[in-house]
Design a protein that fits this description.
Blueprint lengths: L5 H15 L13 E6 L10 H19 L3 E3 L3 E2 L4 H10 L3 H19 L9 E2 L3 H16 L3 E11 L4 E3 L4 E2 L2 E2 L7 E10 L5 H6 L1 H4 L5 H11 L1 E11 L6 E5 L10 E4 L4 H8 L3 H15 L3 H5 L8 E8 L6 E6 L11 E4 L5 H10 L7 E2 L30 H4 L8 E2 L10 H14 L3 E7 L4 E2 L1 E2 L9 E4 L3 E4 L29 H4 E3 L6 E4 L3 E2 L1 H4 L3 H4 L12 H7 L4 E5 L5 H15 L12 E4 L2 E3 L2 E2 L10 H19 L7 E2 L5 H17 L13 H19 L3 H21 L6 H14 L4 H10 L24 E7 L2 E8 L5 H10 L1 H7 L3 E8 L3 E7 L1
Parallel strand pairs: 1-2, 1-26, 3-4, 12-14, 26-27, 28-30, 31-34
Antiparallel strand pairs: 5-6, 5-9, 7-8, 9-19, 10-11, 10-13, 10-18, 12-15, 13-14, 16-17, 20-25, 21-22, 21-24, 23-24, 28-29, 31-32, 33-34
Helix pairs in contact: 1-25, 2-20, 3-4, 20-21, 21-23, 21-25, 22-23, 22-24, 23-24, 24-25
The chain binds ligand ANZ and zinc ion.
Zinc ion binds next to loops.
Pfam families: Anticodon_1 (PF08264), tRNA-synt_1 (PF00133), tRNA-synt_1_2 (PF13603), tRNA-synt_1g (PF09334)
Catalytic activity: tRNA(Leu) + L-leucine + ATP = L-leucyl-tRNA(Leu) + AMP + diphosphate
Keywords: Aminoacyl-tRNA synthetase, ATP-binding, Cytoplasm, Ligase, Nucleotide-binding, Protein biosynthesis
Length: 846
């Protein structure tokens, strides 16, 4: 039968699968229930890497599993092929980003074909094809009609190296996510999607995902959206007609607000400074210049010494009429809340630091020593270790200790609020403010609108035309797509404005409304727009009449299992959830969450460290694939541990995996019984092991315990080998049964080996479509033992019984045995000794 040769198996089965297309989903007339199993689509930079091998391996295990369970499984693949890396690589090498991108796609495709995830290749898509990005433009127009896409001028994150705008999410600790440069701010008019309108729903709907998404991801989404509740409070400003509104989470501390702070880079600060003396104006301007160079992270740090400028203006505290000096200071951000705060130094650490730095008054309004119901007080101990009663605690004075009193307590120095707990005081003060029209309950979010325009070439052109007469004019749907002009002749080097603007023939168009000379918007879309809805495009990727088919979405969506890296825990998932909700509101979808269940694979590391080229410890997908073959690689990844955990490549053994596969494969060639052999005649112990695996594997796979399933397969293969070598031999029906089940389950991890085993066992391809065998319940009862029944010292029967059988039960079975009854005949039983579960001794007398 030859030796196990993974390369030969790969060469043999790929063309067969191409011919059979066993993984084609949604064939006409198909009536099976459906599952949609999706991996995050790859970005085509270079070849696939080990992260892809892992994620796509796991996703494929799930897809194959559901096919065996009788589902019509949609498991598509495509490429997220627009984006900055392609453009940067192209600039560096002087080639067209298109050529670079599509060459990489071809390379990745070749690797994927070898690796053989069970993709429905007929649905392949590339986001950089006009056939795809037309629908990005369509989506943009729908959002524009609804006012969800809009343009505004503002300060944006700017990477001086990439010369492009970055979304907040792409700024990591003040640095560009892609190149590591320090990010600065730049004033630009940009396109945004109003994701903040969906903040509440994006947050509340996370409750539905709890349990089926990793809790870490749910928490990251929650924090990113960052909802806080409190109040908006309005302050009169001396010398200004309009009041200033501040957002506070602690309106209960309003009597302790002793000054106001505005963000130096807000319009309000500029206006207030403009109304002050020349001296103040100069000092403010100098301060503003220095603040502009700082990152938000630095500005919010509690570690840095506080800086600021007194604007020589005053606000009036609405509850006690006190004058509050107004300062500009960098720890207040322009784009959070209202860009201005009421400072309560006694109870807020940053306000206290600021007050102490500039000699501003500190007034305690919450007695944090006073007991509050529902709050467990921190009991302090004196030197003898005895508890100090709260009333005996010395009065703490934040002004001298420098520590703000952030805890719970009872209100003091607060007029009508005195004696109330925090929550009651919040309720009361909001009532008071509402009665006087000076405030109301309010929520605030950390989430910002999604900045979607980029001044780069390799992306979807924004379908807007700017006309001097008519202003912003959306490109009529019938004129889509707005094709990306050829890169030839364009200078792609970043310079702060889009390279598309230099494509004169492309940029100059007639205004769709008035027919006059107009220009196209030259920005391109953030590629997160492309990936925010691609899972819908897979449903009908070749339909050139619509973005996606609502009826198909009804059939397949939401995605049952999404698999991908935790690096997409915030952005991609948040944007996909947002677009799904928008499409729901527009009436295109009947559901509001796109991904029912989420699995994040861990990372492949080497010797405990993350791989990097510079460390020289890279595990290359291509070389591992070449050395061990797809099946051994996949089994290695599945066997390495829980999928969420990192895999240290130094700890795993693809060689061991290959040996296991060879062992399983050899057995399938040794089986001598025919497919219609009577299973019941087989070795009972081996049969029990086979059926227990059939019974256990489904819940193990559904809980992503792939490593346990592989371990159980290894155990089964070893047991099969024992029966062949030292038991009844290869003709035993149980050997065939075990080998068939091994092939079927191995299809989840090693499709080539499984398919070949299936053929050697006498069947037609494809094993991938074989229905999951039903476990025989009779074989699932716990381990059984053989009990011996003796009559007058002679063995008269052997009974297969549970090891937990009771003495009475065993005696009953013994007496009921035909052989035993025959041996006893007409004689009288004088004594029965039972040693459950092994022996029954019966003594008789004539
Ligand atoms: C008075 C106060 C008293 C506050 C107190 C806190 C404690 P989160 O929970 O993150 O939403 N704040 C409001 N706008 C701000 C801005 N633009 N830049 C910096 N800080 C700002 O924080 C809300 C609190 O952060 C608000 O409640 C406000 O300070 C501050 F004992 O108001 B607080
Ligand atoms: Zn016009």
């Amino acid at each position: 039968a030859g030796a196990y040769d993974f390369a030969a198996l790969q060469a043999k089965w790929l063309p067969v699968w191409d011919e059979l297309e066993p993984f084609r989903a949604g064939r006409p007339g198909e009536t099976k229930p459906r599952k949609y199993i999706l991996d995050m689509f790859p970005y085509p930079s270079g070849d696939l890497h080990m992260g892809h091998a892992e994620a796509f391996g796991y996703g494929d295990t799930v897809a194959r599993y559901w096919r065996h369970q009788g589902f019509d499984v949609l498991h598509p693949v495509g490429w997220d092929s627009f984006g900055l890396p392609a453009e940067n690589a192209a600039i560096k090498r002087g080639i067209d980003p298109r050529a670079w991108t599509y060459e990489n796609i071809e390379q990745q495709k070749r690797s994927f074909r070898q690796y053989a995830p069970s993709f429905d290749w007929s649905r392949e898509l590339h986001t950089s094809d006009p056939e795809y990005y037309t629908w990005n433009q369509w989506l943009f127009l729908k959002l524009y009609e609804k006012g969800i896409a809009y343009r505004k001028a503002g300060l944006v994150n700017w990477c001086p190296n990439d010369q492009t705008v970055l979304a907040n999410e792409q700024v990591v600790d003040g640095h560009c996510e892609r190149c590591g440069y320090v990010v600065t701010k730049k004033a630009l008019t940009q396109w945004y999607f109003r994701v903040t309108d969906y903040a509440d729903r994006l947050l509340d709907d996370l409750n539905q995902l709890e349990g089926s998404w990793p809790s870490k991801v749910v928490t990251m989404q929650r924090n990113w959206i960052g909802r806080s509740s409190g109040a908006d409070v309005e302050f009169e400003i001396e010398g200004r007609d309009e009041r200033v509104t501040v957002f506070t989470t602690r309106p209960d501390t309003l009597y302790g607000a002793t000054f106001m702070v505005v963000a130096p880079d807000s319009e309000l600060a500029a206006e207030l400074a403009a109304g002050a003396s020349a001296d103040v104006r100069t000092r403010f301007q100098d301060y503003l210049d220095s603040v502009r160079a700082e990152s938000d992270i630095d500005r919010l740090s509690t570690e840095r010494p506080k800086t600021g400028v007194f604007l020589d203006r005053y606000a009036v505290n609405p509850v006690n009429g006190e004058r509050m000096p107004i300062w500009a200071a960098d720890y207040v951000l322009a784009d959070y809340g209202h860009g201005a705060i009421m400072a309560v130094p006694a109870h807020d650490q940053r306000d206290l630091d600021f007050a102490r730095a500039f000699g501003l008054p500190v007034r305690v309004v919450v007695d944090t020593n006073a007991p509050v119901t529902g709050v467990i007080p921190v009991i302090q101990l004196d030197e003898q270790g005895d508890p100090i009663l709260p009333e005996d605690l010395p009065a703490v004075d934040p002004a001298s200790t420098g520590i703000a009193l952030a805890g719970e307590g009872r209100l003091v120095n607060s007029g009508p609020l005195d004696g109330l707990s925090k929550s009651n005081a919040i309720r009361r003060v909001i009532e008071l403010l509402e009665q006087r029209g000076l405030g109301r309950a309010a929520k605030n979010f950390r989430l910002r609108d999604w900045l979607i325009s980029r001044q780069r070439y390799w992306g979807t052109p924004i379908p807007i035309i700017h006309c001097a007469e008519c202003g912003e004019v959306p490109v009529p749907e019938a004129d889509l797509p707005v094709r990306l002009p050829d890169a030839a002749g364009l200078d792609l080097k970043p310079k702060g404005s889009s390279p598309l603007g230099a494509a004169e023939d492309w940029a100059n168009v007639a205004c769709p409304t008035c027919g006059g000379a107009a220009r196209r918007d030259s920005d391109t879309m953030d590629t997160f727009v492309d990936s925010s809805w691609y899972y819908l495009r897979y449903l009908n990727p070749n339909d050139d009449t619509k973005a996606f088919d609502t009826a198909e979405a009804e059939k397949w969506m939401p995605v049952d299992q999404y698999v991908g890296g935790v690096e997409h825990a915030i952005l991609h998932l948040l944007y996909s959830r947002f677009i799904t909700k928008v499409l729901f509101d527009l009436g295109y979808l009947s559901f509001t969450e796109p991904f029912t269940s989420l699995l994040n694979q861990g990372m492949v590391i080497m010797d405990g460290t993350k791989m990097s080229k510079s460390k020289g410890n890279l595990v290359e997908f291509a070389s591992e694939l070449g050395a061990h073959g797809a099946d051994a690689l996949r089994v290695t990844l599945a066997f390495a541990g829980p999928p969420e955990d990192d895999i240290d490549w130094a700890d795993v053994s693809p060689v061991g995996a290959a040996k296991f596969l060879a062992r399983a494969w050899r057995i399938s060639g040794e089986v001598t019984s025919s497919p219609d052999v009577e299973w019941k005649t087989g070795d009972a112990a081996l049969r029990r092991m086979t059926h227990r695996l059939l019974a256990d594997a489904p819940s193990l796979v559904e809980a992503f315990k792939f490593n346990v399933v592989v371990a159980r397969l290894m155990e089964l293969v070893n047991a099969t080998r024992k029966v062949i070598d030292s038991g009844a031999g290869p003709a035993d029906a149980a050997v065939r049964e075990a080998s068939e089940v091994t092939a079927m389950i191995l299809d989840l991890f090693a499709p080539y080996t499984a398919e070949d085993m299936w053929e050697r066992l006498g069947y037609q391809p494809s094993v991938a479509l074989v229905a999951w065998r039903k476990a025989d319940p009779a074989l699932l009862v716990e381990e059984s033992v053989t009990a011996i029944v003796q009559v007058d010292g002679k063995v008269r029967d052997r009974l297969v019984v549970s090891p937990k059988i009771s003495g009475e039960e065993l005696e009953g079975l013994a007496r009921a045995s035909a052989g035993v009854a025959r041996a006893i005949g007409e004689r009288e039983i004088v004594n029965v000794i039972v040693r459950a579960p092994r022996i029954v001794n019966i003594a008789t007398r004539a």
